[in-house]
Design the sequence.
């Protein structure tokens, strides 16, 4: 079972990497883009005068939703113990690498708000993992 979960995580990570670096028409930008101010980008997407349902869905809901599977899969892959802490550290390390690749390739931005939204998705997935584990599935 652990081997299957590893293969699913690997495949899904490659898909996420593709989306983050090449998907959705991403092209290299002329400069490096980054945001270190928490909630700055999130606020921009929620402003009424700049609100666009498509952009809102892709950036806010997408940054949460696509990371939910990691919250379910990483605990299945890792051994018992401090499961949340281990899973979260591994997850954040992966997000750090992907965000850094976006910055270095100039195909996106290194954004602290992405960390916040991605982590929310992971935690929702971890909650789902706990519900499934308690129900015996």
Sequence:
């Amino acid at each position: 079972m652990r081997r299957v979960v590893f293969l699913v995580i690997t495949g899904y990570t490659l898909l996420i990497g593709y989306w983050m670096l090449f998907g959705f028409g991403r092209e290299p930008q002329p400069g490096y883009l980054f945001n270190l101010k928490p909630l700055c980008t999130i606020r921009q997407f929620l402003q009424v005068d700049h609100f666009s349902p498509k952009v809102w869905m892709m950036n806010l809901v997408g940054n949460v939703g696509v990371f939910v599977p990691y919250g379910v899969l990483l605990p299945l892959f890792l051994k018992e113990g401090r499961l949340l802490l281990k899973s979260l550290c591994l997850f954040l390390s992966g997000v750090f690498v992907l965000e850094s690749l976006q910055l270095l390739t100039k195909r996106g931005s290194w954004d602290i708000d992405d960390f916040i939204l991605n982590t929310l998705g992971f935690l929702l997935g971890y909650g789902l993992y706990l519900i499934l584990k308690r129900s015996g599935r």
The chain is about 70% helix and 5% strand.
